Amino acid sequence: MNTPQMPGKLIVFEGTDGTGKTTQRDLLGRYLLAKGYPVIITKEPTDGPYGMKIRELYRHRSRFSREEELELFLADRRQHVKNLLLPSLMEGKIILCDRYYFSTAAYQGALGLDPEIILAQNDFAPEPHLVLLFQASLDIGLKRITAGRGETLNNFEQREFLEKVATIFSAIKRPFIRNIDASGTMEDIHRQVVGCVSDLLQPLRTASPD
Ligand code: TMP
Predict the structure, then answer these.
(1) Closest ligand 1 atom, residue 21 Cα
(2) pTM to 2 decimals?
(3) CB 14 within 8 A of CB 21
(4) CATH number for the 9-202 domain, one of 2.60.40.3230, 3.10.310.30, 3.40.50.20, 3.40.50.300?
(5) Who contacts 82 (Cβ-Cβ below 8 Å, separation ≥6)?
(6) Is 156 in the pocket of ligand 1 (CB under 6 A)?
(7) Ligand 1 center to 37 CA (angstroms)
(8) How many angstroms is it from 93 CA to the middle of ligand 1?
């Protein structure tokens, strides 16, 4: 869905697990709030009923077919779009969303579904103004998950699977996708993120009181 007539902006953080998306989304949120922008922070899967089911799925993946899994992510997104994303865009908010339909194309695509068909099935969802695609070697990502967070890998995080996910992410071409080199320090990555976002928010900034 096209969003040109809506005053808000939708900025999406995408990439394989452990690339630091969530940390950077929160850092950017604080940065923009301090500058007076009306920021909404959100994520997919959401904390709604379908999002809860999806988290259940992390633990018992074999109970679901990949088609059922896809349906759950789409149902979760439909609710997210209707309840939060569209109203916030209409209100002129800057939405920072951790994962969106590019993750569905990449993750469910890595399970063998067609990424292009998945993208087309997401036609109901507003097109983002900016997608920041976080890229780092899988070694870095997996180390951040297992060492940093003290977690073991879930089904979505197995190495071979993530290699396929990363390949699909890189193959999606859209004019609003910017690659972020996520192998550096937190500060370095934040600088890249702010650089990409500043271009997008320039008109808003000149319209704001300061
Ligand atoms: P996260 O909360 O750590 O980002 O984990 C969400 C997991 O769900 C992550 O491994 C990617 C996966 N996922 C999909 O498989 N399809 C989707 O459409 C979305 C949004 C996430």
Answers:
(1) 4
(2) 0.92
(3) yes
(4) 3.40.50.300
(5) none
(6) yes
(7) 27
(8) 24
pLDDT at residue 77, as a whole number: 98
Residue positions counted in the chain? 210
Contact predicate 72/56, CB 8 Å:
no
Amino acid in position 88: S
Q: Could you tell me the residue ranges of all domains in the chain?
A: 9-202
Structure tokens at 208: 């704001």
Sign of the dihedral through C-alpha 17, 35, 176, 137: negative
CB 21 near ligand 1, within 6 Å: no
For 43-99, write each residue's pLDDT tens digit: 999 999 999 999 888 777 667 899 999 999 999 999 999 999 999 999 999 999 999
pLDDT tens per residue, range 27-47: 999 999 999 999 999 999 999
69 lines ligand 1 (CB under 6 A): no
From CA 80, how far away is CA 18, in angstroms rounded? 24
